[in-house]
Amino acid sequence: MLIGEELTSIYVEGNADRYVGEARGSRSRWVSRFRNSESVRGYLLLVPALLVVGALLLSPLAALVALSFASQSYFDIDYTPTLTNYRTIFAPAAEPVYFLGIPFYLESPIFMVLLVKSILMSLVSTAAVILLAYPMAYFLAFQVKRGKVIWIILITLPFWTSYLLRVFSWKIILGFNGVVNSGLVDLGIIAQPLDFLLYNPTAVVITLAHAWAAFAILPIYVSLEKIDRSLFEASVDLGDSWLKRFLRVTLPLSWPGVAAAAMLVFIPTVGDYVTPTLVGGREGIMIGNIVQSQFGKANNAPLGAAVSIVSMTVVAIGVLFFLWISGRRHGTER
Amino acid sequence: MVLELERPMISLRHVSRHYGPIRAVDDVTLDIAAGEFFSLLGPSGCGKTTLLRMLGGFDAPTFGEVFIDGKSMAGVPANRRPTNMVFQNYALFPHLSIRENVGYGLLNRKMTKAAVADRVAQALEMIRLGHLADRWPHQLSGGQRQRVALARALVCEPKVLLLDEPLGALDKKLRAEMQSELRRIQRAVGITFVLVTHDQEEALTLSDRIAIMSAGRPLQIGDPRSLYEAPENRAVAEFIGEMNFFRAEVQAVRPEGTSVRVDGLGDLTVATRGTVAAGSAVTLAMRPEKIVLSWERPPHTDGMIEGRVVSETYLGDRCQYGVAVANHAAPIRVVTQNNMPGAGRQQDRPVWLDYPREALLLLTM
Ligand SMILES: Nc1ncnc2c1ncn2[C@@H]1O[C@H](COP(=O)(O)OP(=O)(O)OP(=O)(O)O)[C@@H](O)[C@H]1O
Ligand SMILES: [Mg+2]
Questions:
Q1: Over 60: is that where the pLDDT of A212 sits?
Q2: Given phi > 0 = left and psi -120 to 50 = alpha, else beta, which region is B348?
């Protein structure tokens, strides 16, 4: 049959170059295979990025690890490998020190206590950020019909100023003679300015939450925007109220964005020391402040390095666990 | 035409939906009986989806009222209507397994877990996908997803099932399969189906009744046979199937029929339909497959049309010819079955066309 013949000839033609390729010498075959291999090409394209990552991320990290096994002898650093710093951090004690009801059986519990405290403050900030960012992202994704770009620009506007300035602005808002206090005094609601607004963990949490909100809005917005609108109609059609629809469809489907936003906020805020330094006061210090002081006033860089390695490891394990938990369902799906 | 139904499941009373100046649905009044398979058929943009969405509660009429099972649906949101929808893109929840998708609506009912599981298993059995219950939607083929969407809506046991071009994304073969599946399921469950489609063959094979829509209003509502055999106006005749149109002038209206002078056919008497006045211009319509084509001159050529083949289209099981006739501008289209070997297949051959007089339809619009 004519059609059959045509098909056969097309089929043969389609295979022709493969046969020709195999007929050529094995060297050129390897070259062409190398050139045509998707993965090889992918890695080649990645080389510049890998170099940058290696130079800017891995080498400082390696230096930090090396430093954490060194020791400080007065003004010099002794690079003989030693576990002194880790021993300092984890040295056990018979009597526990309690922090928030958790017993710490440690000789110098300050490091672990501060780490736990930082993680908790960071978690609260992250939760606050998500709670703040989700409604905004929801509004942006579903209520705004025109001019979304303008809204996104408006939302990110505060982030065009420096991080330091944003933290300072909270100092102005929450301070003894700040906006909140003078406003309340002027309104006659309080006689004396409140002194518990600033220089405590709450001030740190508020400042962190505000400072990182925009980073959370965008990933959540993107994940909401991606949801097929007919799924919402299907859910209502099957009897869901708005709240049920949100819990059964919107939230699960935007979960990747929420998880990304949480990572984006949690990881950098655990180690932050600028905000606690400026608005945290004595009570609001975090693990970053300890690290900073070890590298500075306390003059024990190896110990500071060890503390940051410990804190990094704990955060990494926590994050991986979180990703594993929230990715389990989606892992089977994709 | 409003059919007076004993107790309609769905009643639309002067329902309109305007989008600014656009009248997507324009003053529709119709009734759909309980257990009926009703189709909305029409060209793109004629308002089928808008009408269906107003039944489902996803859109509200600008004017008029929708009644379902005797109750006004004004202000009743989609989640409290006795309707369920099968969406064109299926809208299966990607984060839920097939089983969870099918059971989705039942979790909003006061039912025990075991009862839900039972009903879901039954529904999966009905669509013959029990073995895929623990898969994810993205792992199914288009036809399988389609059936899951159907099961998901049907387990809720709605009074009315709404389907918006549910088979639009399937290939021809699978579509035919799903059509008979749809019909089988509809018969089995006895639920009122309202189907939106722009595929006339689909509407004809599936429906008890069809509404042909154009520009937001139904042109004619009827069972498939009456729509095909007795279209009331030119738009319907044109939309369903193929049709030859002849211009004609009414000579006289008599009890036994209307005598007309037809371009290309001469003087004829046809059955009167509607009101026509002598001297008015009308249109006569004739289906291509009702015409009998002879390649040889028949012994008696009285009342036959003599013409010349000017085009030939091979359709596999059938052949369509264009036959040029004196005094008639457009070639007459004739369709014959391909069951006579060696017949014709030549252009410019003279042919003789015969047609039963009943096949001629008098259209006033
Ligand atoms: N949200 C809307 N805003 C403005 N106009 C609309 C809207 N929805 C529909 N229309 C208009 O209403 C008319 C009917 O639309 P509808 O979607 O009901 O058509 P349809 O018959 O379903 O067509 P198709 O077969 O292409 O799906 C169209 O002219 C469309 O442009
Ligand atoms: Mg449509």
A1: yes
A2: left
Q: Which residues does chain B have within 8 Å of residue A247's beta carbon, measured at their own beta carbons?
A: none
ipTM over 0.85: no
Is B164 contained in some domain? Answer: yes
Q: Which domain, by its residues, includes B359?
A: 242-289+299-363
pLDDT band at B84; cut points 50, 70, 90: very high
Residue A273 predicted with pLDDT over 90: no
List, for residues A229-262, the tens digit of each pLDDT value: 999 999 999 999 999 999 999 999 999 999 999 9
Q: Give the number of domains in chain B.
A: 2
Task: Verify that B81 and B188 share a domain, yes or no.
Answer: yes
Which ligand 1 atom sits nearest the alpha carbon of residue B198? Answer: 25
Neighbours of B252 (CB within 10 A): 11
Same domain, yes or no, for B267 and B215? no
Q: What residues does the ion ligand 2 have nearby, CB within 5 Å?
A: B 49
Q: What is the pLDDT of residues B178-225, one digit of tens each?
A: 888 888 888 888 899 999 998 888 899 889 999 999 889 999 999 999
Residue B341: the pLDDT is 59
- Ligand 1 centre distance from Cα of residue B77 (Å): 21
CATH assignment of the domain containing B116: 3.40.50.300
Q: Are residues B157 and B96 in the same domain?
A: yes
Assign residue A190 a region (left: φ > 0; alpha: ψ between -120 and 50; beta: otherwise): beta
**Ramachandran sector of residue B161 (left: φ over 0; alpha: ψ -120 to 50; beta: rest):** beta
Ligand 1: residues within 6 Å at CB? B 19, 22, 24, 42, 44-50, 198
Residues B184, B226 within the same domain: yes
pTM value? 0.78
What is the percent of chain B where pLDDT is above 90? 31
- Residue A45, sorted as left (phi over 0), alpha (psi -120 to 50) or beta, turns out to be alpha
The Cβ-side half-sphere exposure at A215, using a 13 Å CA radius, reads 21
| pLDDT tens digits along A323-334 | 888 876 654 444
Query: Which residue ranges form the domains of chain A, and what is each CATH number?
Result: 2-64 (no CATH), 92-333 (1.10.3720.10)
- Which of A238, A244, A253 lies nearest to residue B84, judging by beta carbons? A238
Residue A93 tokens read as 């004690």
H or E element at residue B173: helix B172-189
How many C-alpha atoms does B272 have within 13 Å on its Cβ side?
15
Query: Could you say which of B196, B219, B237 is where a domain stops?
Result: B237
